[in-house]
């Protein structure tokens, strides 16, 4: 019997639980645990109403490794899906290691005191996971996640050699509010305000945040400004495909979004350095998160589409070729189906598919793995079947 423990009860976890409940042949038993039990119970009630599936719920602080290890030893699930925040990654990996349980997440570890995400901390568990005979699948969301699988698909079917890779993420959704982030505001703002990094001729190049801008014509959406930034999948992709000479990540931002962000940054509200306020230490970005709209509240009001994909240039049969592989997801349809908007939907569906690949032993290894290290075909087939169809174009 396949039993999964899902940790976290935010917008993404809501989609993951809905999607796991939809596939009763793979996910026989689902337990949802998070810091706030009421949020788990609300998701469980919605899933019961929609799919008739009972979700067990538990309260857990995933940063308390002994308590989480006890929970894992009590429940003995086949797999833990970490859908909490990147700060919890290592604690959850530690508990999985202690209890001998497989692990999956959607975002790589970031130390709370430093806005810097890197795979080195999680890759360092490889030897211990191998020795324990368990697997960790890192970054099974959309980007990272599907973008890694798209790259593996390009290498397997479309290009003999990939020379240039551009991952391009558009959110053309409109929630009608002056300023809001579409996933956890703290993680989102830390990511966007960090220096941009891209890979060029065998080395990382660092440039100031949002200093490279282009225009890209997205299918079904049209032209949008895209800005280069650093994103975690670049690190694993250039490691696993050393032929890639240039790798960049781009995201769309409206002028309105960037103006708000600039002001917040200029007045110090995006800082992660603690400040004293009325005798108490507070971290400005955490206070900002508390006053910004909860991303989950954007679901019912967001209209429009997301388009995320990879443009790869390289050689096929000795000739130059450029291909584009992408998915388009509609905010309103995602909300109608799950009660979460497209950002959560495009992350939650691949998390469920990654879990399915592990539970069915389609993707199996002992140790710590990234998505591009497995056969992309079965994953992409399931992805399309569970709500995220994808297209390939030659440019
Ligand atoms: P939310 O902030 O909406 O939800 C996070 C959940 O984790 C909350 O329920 C929170 O509990 C819970 N949590 C936080 N700390 C702990 C803890 N110590 N123990 C137990 N539970 C905890 O985030 P999202 O749902 O938007 O995002 C979830 C993850 O998905 C993040 O890691 C994010 O980076 C990742 N992501 C990945 C993407 C991809 O494409 N790869 C894209 C978008 C997001 P509480 O409710 O009590 O605060």
UniProtKB/TrEMBL annotation:
InterPro entries xref list: NAD(P)-bd_dom_sf (IPR036291), Sacchrp_dh-like_C (IPR032095), Sacchrp_dh_NADP-bd (IPR005097)
Protein name (Swiss-Prot/TrEMBL): Saccharopine dehydrogenase
Record SUPFAM superfamilies: NAD(P)-binding Rossmann-fold domains
Ranges of residues in domain Saccharopine dehydrogenase-like C-terminal: 141-388
Domain annotation Saccharopine dehydrogenase NADP binding: ranges: 4-137
Any Pfam family the entry gives: Sacchrp_dh_C
Entry superkingdom: Bacteria
